[in-house]
């Protein structure tokens, strides 16, 4: 397992994904965001990390789905506005 800067790793024991910032021998400096958006950095031994494969193929699909959902919402809002103006 070759860990390099920019890789996403996770502790073998679990937890959230970490981004590799620097590799020095068997020491790996990792960055991650805390729950409140704070940036953390910790140097960990290479032996406790596994590289995570990130599937980016369906990220675009989610964005497309969200766009269609928003378009549908806009259509409904326009329709409601028309109906309200007819009643008034």
Give a structural overview.
There is one protein chain. The protein is of the alpha+beta class and 88 residues long. The protein has 2 domains: 8-51, no CATH class; 56-88. The chain has 1 helix and 5 strands; from the N terminus they run βββββα. The radius of gyration is 22 Å and the shape is globular.
Bulk shape: globular
What is the makeup of the main sheet? Answer: 5 strands, antiparallel
Number of E-state strands: 5
The computed structural class is: alpha+beta
The residue ranges in which pLDDT falls below 50 over 5 or more consecutive positions are 81-86
The helical percent reads: 25-40%
Proportion in β-strands:
25-35%
Arrangement of strands in the largest sheet: 4-3-2-1-5
Order of helices and strands: EEEEEH
Mean pLDDT, as a whole number? 80
As a whole number of angstroms, the C-alpha radius of gyration is: 22 Å
Q: What's the total helix number?
A: 1
The end-to-end span amounts to: 69 Å
Give the domain tally.
2
What's this model, at a glance?
Helices cover 33% and strands 32% of the residues.
Which secondary structure elements does this structure contain, and how are they paired or packed?
Blueprint: E1 8-11, E2 18-24, E3 27-33, E4 39-45, E5 49-51, H1 59-87
Antiparallel strand pairs: 1-2, 1-5, 2-3, 3-4
């Amino acid at each position: 397992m070759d860990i390099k800067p920019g890789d996403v790793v996770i502790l073998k024991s679990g937890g959230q994904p970490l981004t590799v910032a620097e590799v020095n021998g068997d020491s790996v400096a990792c960055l991650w965001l805390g729950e409140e958006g704070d940036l953390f950095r910790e140097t960990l031994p290479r032996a406790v990390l596994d590289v995570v494969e990130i599937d980016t193929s369906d990220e675009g699909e989610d964005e497309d789905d969200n766009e269609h959902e928003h378009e549908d919402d806009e259509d409904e809002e326009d329709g409601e506005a028309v109906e309200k103006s007819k009643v008034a």
